[in-house]
Amino acid sequence: MDEPPVIELRDISLTHEEKPVLSRISFRVDQGETLFLLGVTGAGKSVLLKLILGLLKPSSGQVLIHGRDITPMSEDELDQIRRRMGIVFQEGALFDSLSVYENVAYRLREEGLGPEAEVERQIREVLRFVEMEEAIDKMPSELSGGMRRRVAIARAIISQPEIMLYDSPTAGLDPVTSHTITVQIAKLRDVQHVTSLVVTHHLQDAFVLANYFYLGQKAALVPWRSLNRPSSEPLTRFLLLREGKSYFQGTPEELAATHDGYLLKFLA
Predict the structure, then answer these.
(1) Residue 95 resides in a domain
(2) What's this model's pTM, rounded to 2 decimal places?
(3) Domain for residue 16, yes or no?
(4) Dmax (CA) of the chain
(5) pLDDT tens column, 157-204
(6) How many structural domains are present in the chain?
(7) Residue 63 placed within a domain
(8) How deeply is 124 buried, as exposed, middle or buried, from its count of CB atoms within 10 A (0-12, 13-18, 19+)?
(9) Which residue, 34, 96, 119, 167, shows the most beta carbons closer than 10 Å to its own?
(10) Per residue in 101-116, pLDDT tens?
(11) Which residue range(s) make up the domain with 124?
């Protein structure tokens, strides 16, 4: 029997104050896949993340995580599902009054996991993963925007999530810092093999993640084609929303080859 998708939305619609926000959205994301959510501001991208987290309930349709419909679940049941997820918000959403150490430890303390020595080991491990261990005692106000995002990634992965949700993780960053975050996302995907949804306005970042692989020996991104192992390539797809509807779903190659006027304008 085939495994169910890690994430599946079936004919999801959402209205707010009698106005349609999303209309009949369906897609699936299998283990290790990455789905990029594209669209102009207000198209409904972040709303989809909230539905997947169970923070919003659809007006109709189903949201399934590992084959289980979360729409009728209680808050306690949803908390169990959320423990398998990590989320990185656009601004990092760190607690300004807590140090880097305490920010990353927050989720572990909520779950009451382990003695302090074990907590510190795990924190240092994830900070080392995102190349931020040297900032362990700093406050968020002492960090640059890119450093804050990397700490946010560390906090998101401290509980070893199977699913990562990114809400515009490179928004507002300069190109060099944006690339640093892109490398971290690729590293998590290619080393930890997580399933990812990425909301982004930066198509360049999306195509880099679709066509490059994090190679640990070089600690850098290298083109898939240079590895001579296409069978190992995880599937990457795009979903573009327009006015709350699914306007395009397909691979990077299909998007790049489009002749659709709206898509061409979006890609320009």
Answers:
(1) yes
(2) 0.88
(3) no
(4) 58
(5) 988 899 999 998 888 888 888 888 888 888 888 888 899 999 988 888
(6) 1
(7) no
(8) middle
(9) 34
(10) 999 998 887 766 667 7
(11) 85-160
